[in-house]
Design brief:
Order of helices and strands: EHEHEHEEHEEEEEEHHEHHHH
CATH architecture of the largest domain: Alpha-Beta Complex
Strand content: 15-25%
Pathway: Cell wall biogenesis; cell wall polysaccharide biosynthesis
GO molecular function: glycosyltransferase activity
Protein name: Glycosyl transferase
Structural class: alpha/beta
Organism: Chloroflexus islandicus
CATH class of the largest domain: Alpha Beta
Family: Belongs to the glycosyltransferase 2 family.
């Protein structure tokens, strides 16, 4: 009998994307009695819960009532999967659409090796269906840099393999591994939480695996730039939190703080061609909040409130 899967779709507004995502999930070739779609809503203001219940009454809808962030919101879904005795939980962004054989491919990979804690698919840009956004992630521990393979056309150059991390955009997790690895670290709020979880999984004796046979399309802009204030804030603060949580050595810290962050920060203020870019305030506040131990959601000044 096929393993039971809970597909956790975290939502925060974006109802049109959510409905398209759910429509693709209900076209999956996996036996319908063996998977359940669980929509976890983080306090959407566009009527997401009601519209999902109307369009897809078979879906489970859990309302958090507030924006708990990516980590805490997905943990609600993971706890549900644990409580209901599911074998796997698929974390999936609401702005994705999936291939009909996605679950078959992911589950087959996980079932082939009980030491695999998580499996990730190849993820393409929705607006450029053959251009790869993510094909598994690697960590440069010397410099403390986390990178995803991708940003090229798919010519079959990305093999199935063990990877350092899988993006939480589409990540199949073995529920039994949660007992040993734990849930996502909610201090991150958003960004780096899945990477830190994958490091914990590896140190607990598991591996994370990428398979290009499973396919997802992500509605992220082709020219997406991480220069908004809140993105600069989270990427700065959470990268430092990641280094602390994974116990990076002093050489990695030196490279991250001086050769990378300080140089970037000074360039944002001093180089004429970069002065118009956003992110300076967010980056500075990210540093400040990390050192004073302030985690969770970004401050209002960064979010523009």
């Amino acid at each position: 009998m096929k393993p039971r899967i809970a597909i956790v779709v975290l939502t925060y507004n974006g109802i049109a994307d959510t409905l398209a995502c759910l429509a693709s999930l209900y076209r999956l070739e996996y036996p319908s009695a063996r998977y359940e779609v669980v929509v976890v809503d983080n306090g959407s203001r566009d009527g997401t819960p009601a519209q999902v219940r109307s369009a897809f009454p078979q879906a489970i809808v859990i309302e958090n009532g507030a924006n708990l962030g990516f980590a805490a919101g997905n943990n609600v879904g993971l706890r549900y999967a644990q409580a209901q005795g599911y074998d796997y939980a698929l974390l999936l962004n609401n702005d994705t659409e999936v291939a009909p054989d996605l679950l078959e491919r992911l589950v087959a990979t996980a079932e082939a090796d009980p030491t695999i804690a998580a499996v990730g698919p190849i993820i393409y840009y929705h607006d450029a269906p053959q251009r790869v956004w993510s094909a598994g992630g690697s960590i440069d521990w010397r410099r403390g840099i986390c990178r995803m393979a991708g940003e090229t056309e798919d010519h079959g150059q990305y093999p199935a393999r063990v990877v350092d991390f899988i993006t939480g955009c589409a990540m199949l997790i073995r529920v039994a591994a949660l007992g040993k690895v734990g849930l996502l670290d909610e201090r991150f709020f958003m960004y780096f939480e899945e990477t830190e979880w994958c490091v914990r999984a590896k140190r607990a004796g598991y591996s994370c695996y990428f398979t290009p046979a499973a396919k997802v399309w992500h509605k992220i802009p082709l020219n997406a730039r991480f220069d908004r204030e809140y993105l600069a804030y989270y990427m700065t603060r959470n990268r430092l939190l990641f280094l602390r949580a994974t116990r990076a050595n002093w050489r990695t810290w030196l490279d991250a703080l001086v050769l990378q962050d300080l140089r970037t920060y000074l360039s944002l203020w001093l180089r004429p061609k970069w002065r118009t870019r956003k992110g300076r305030i967010g980056m500075g506040l990210g540093w400040f909040d990390f050192w004073r131990g302030r985690f969770g959601p970004a401050p209002g000044v960064v979010m523009g409130r």
